[in-house]
Amino acid sequence: MTPPVQLATSNRALARFRHATPTPRTALLGALLWAATMGASALVNLSLLDSWVTPDKIRKVSLLFAGGGALAFPVGLFAARLVSLGRGWEVAFAAAMVCLAVVTIGLTAGLYALQYRSYYAEWHAPVFTLTWGLQFAFTMAVALYQFVVLGIRLYFPLGFIALFAASLWFARQRR
């Protein structure tokens, strides 16, 4: 039999998770808008670079950023709501800024690392060997490092402006 204190704590945590979960409509519309904005941010930045490879590569990178944004918005929104539940608008604003930024960068970097890994996979050892494990780990680490060094700049200034606007929207919704 479960002790009453443990049961009450479990119910409270479940209620917090339920309350922090965004509605499907908000998650879907937000993900589409966030994806379009993050993809546009990358597209604008890459288009401004004088001789950046080819239009096809610019399109692929923009789609990668859009995909990362689409995946990140519902997760970032959930995390921000969970962190700021029952707190003031300042905390809600800060939570949205941090959660959306970290999750967007993290998931986009993860997608980039998976794409990077798939490119180098043909030169790697057979799957699930020790050598393959090391190659996998180091390839992913290099891809994440490369994204941090070269990819984050594609969020500025449009992505940062969108982050600020989304955080203001979130803080106003939490009132």
From TrEMBL:
<feature type="transmembrane region" description="Helical">
    <location>
        <begin position="61"/>
        <end position="80"/>
    </location>
</feature>
<keyword id="KW-0472">Membrane</keyword>
<feature type="transmembrane region" description="Helical">
    <location>
        <begin position="27"/>
        <end position="49"/>
    </location>
</feature>
<feature type="transmembrane region" description="Helical">
    <location>
        <begin position="92"/>
        <end position="114"/>
    </location>
</feature>
<feature type="transmembrane region" description="Helical">
    <location>
        <begin position="154"/>
        <end position="171"/>
    </location>
</feature>
<protein>
    <submittedName>
        <fullName>Uncharacterized protein</fullName>
    </submittedName>
</protein>
<keyword id="KW-1133">Transmembrane helix</keyword>
<keyword id="KW-0812">Transmembrane</keyword>
<feature type="transmembrane region" description="Helical">
    <location>
        <begin position="126"/>
        <end position="148"/>
    </location>
</feature>
